[in-house]
Design brief:
Distance between the termini: 32 Å
Number of helices: 15
Mean pLDDT: 89
Pfam family, one: Beta-lactamase
Number of strands: 13
Structural class: alpha+beta
Number of domains: 2
Strand content: 15-25%
Protein name: Beta-lactamase family protein
Shape: globular
Strand order of the largest sheet: 2-1-13-12-11-10-9-8
Order of helices and strands: HHHEEEHHHHHHHEHEEHEHHEEEEEEH
Keywords: Signal
CATH superfamily of the largest domain: DD-peptidase/beta-lactamase superfamily
CATH topology of the largest domain: Beta-lactamase
Oligomer: single chain
Helix content: 25-40%
InterPro entries: AmpC-like, Beta-lactam-related, Beta-lactam/transpept-like
CATH class of the largest domain: Alpha Beta
């Protein structure tokens, strides 16, 4: 029964195709390419349990979403659920494009990493060496700022400096003229304070170093070599894609999801929140984080990005106790959050939230496992995606899932949205 349920979910190559590939390989003398292995019984238990959770608790509470799940270093689930636009029959599929929101930050640190690998810059290069005409409240602190400080949110500036102006649709360049008014709460490198505007200064450094636009560097160094064919930056690219997931908000009076107009505010800070991508694109991004694309992101880059650069609190990481009972210490790396969970170290995570959209991504390179979740609403169920996946993964390791995966979920009313 279980095998029939999951036939459409697992990324298995049909026997007919395998035979064709074997024949072609024999004729050409080429080695047969490796194929994804079917899930083990334990992995299948996890996949079914997680699918039950998605159908019973997530699907009724958002118009649409997409999931990529990797176990044992291989993609075992790649699927869209629901609709791209409430009230329509446009199904979410593996190529439907979502806004990534702050998961975009992970590409910025990687873009810097590619330039470090080319010996064009170091993680400790000074901001002031590349970005001129930028004044700070304390000049001695401003002159000490490095790209590492920007990417780890350890600039020392007050949290969310001028995020309010992004919301008010003030241009990024105009916001930078006001940086001198932002107070430092500590010396650079000494405390954590999340940023969007300040983080985007890393993009300015990339442009100064490469002599190209920030977006072009990401395209050339990341999107293209990773085969992220649907990935893009900006509002124009998003609305120009017919297969896009329209953002939604819950209308309490009408008790239904309503599409919301996409504005340009966070697209103005592209290094912080400007990317659009499909779940297929994000599968490749997840594989790169697991060390599967060394020619693009080598171990030195990954070690820096995924390292524990600054201690944070669970609250600063938005890890709520009621969802994260087994959470250990929490940190921020370079463009990524890092935490310990259930006695294991080095889980790497980031979430995103812009108007009408939520995103989540988590992985553990040592375990060769990970998950990406993209949804076209602000559903609170997004908060439960990562901790539920990690709890089920732990239960799989402990052999606790097999007895609990036999029943199919009952669908709930969409009116039960949170």
């Amino acid at each position: 029964m279980r095998s029939s349920i999951f036939a459409a979910l697992f990324l298995l190559i049909p026997a007919q195709v395998n035979g064709q590939q074997a024949t072609q390989a024999a004729v050409s003398g080429q080695a047969l390419p490796s194929l994804p292995l079917p899930p083990s019984p334990e992995q299948q238990d996890l996949l079914q349990a997680f699918e039950n959770f998605l159908l019973a608790e997530v699907a009724p509470k958002t118009p649409g979403f997409a999931v990529a799940l990797v176990l044992g270093g291989e993609a075992k689930l790649l699927k869209g659920y629901g609709v791209a636009n409430a009230g329509s029959e446009e199904k979410v599929d593996a190529d439907t494009v979502f806004r990534l929101a702050s998961v975009s930050k992970t590409f910025t640190s990687a873009a810097v990493g590619t330039l470090v690998a080319q010996d064009k810059v170091s993680w400790d290069s000074k901001l002031s060496d590349y970005v001129a005409d930028l004044s700070f409240n304390k000049p001695e602190y401003g002159s000490a700022l490095t790209v590492r400080h920007l990417l780890s949110h350890t600039s020392g500036l007050m949290p969310h400096a001028y995020t309010n102006l992004i919301e008010d649709r003030v241009s990024y360049r105009k916001i930078l003229t006001k940086m001198e008014q932002v107070p430092f709460i500590c010396a650079p490198g000494k405390c954590y304070a999340y940023q969007n505007v300040v983080y985007s200064l890393a993009g300015d450094m990339v442009e100064a170093i490469s002599k190209q636009s920030f977006e072009q560097v990401v395209q050339d160094n990341l999107f293209t070599p990773l085969n992220m064919k649907n990935a893009s930056y900006g509002l124009k690219a998003f609305v120009g894609n017919e297969n896009r997931a329209q953002p939604h908000k819950w209308n309490r009076r009408q008790e239904k999801w309503r599409p919301v107009k996409v504005n340009n505010n966070y697209y103005r800070v592209a290094p912080a929140a400007g990317i659009n991508a499909s779940i297929t694109d994000m599968k490749f991004w997840l594989m790169a984080q697991l060390g599967k694309h060394q020619a693009v992101l080598n171990d030195d880059i990954l070690d820096e990005m995924h390292g524990k650069h600054i201690k944070t609190s669970a609250r600063q990481g938005h890890y709520r106790k009621r969802d994260w009972q087994n959470l250990g210490q929490t940190y921020y790396g370079l463009g990524w959050r890092v935490f310990d969970y259930n006695g294991r170290e080095n889980f790497v995570h980031h979430g995103g939230w812009v108007d009408g959209t939520r995103t989540e991504m988590v992985f553990n390179e040592a375990l060769q496992m990970g998950l990406v979740f993209l949804t076209n609403s602000e559903t609170r169920m997004a908060n439960k995606i990562v901790p539920t996946f990690l709890r089920l993964y732990s239960q799989m390791e402990n052999g606790e899932l097999a007895a609990n995966t036999g029943q199919q979920p009952e669908r709930q009313s969409q009116a039960q949205v949170e």
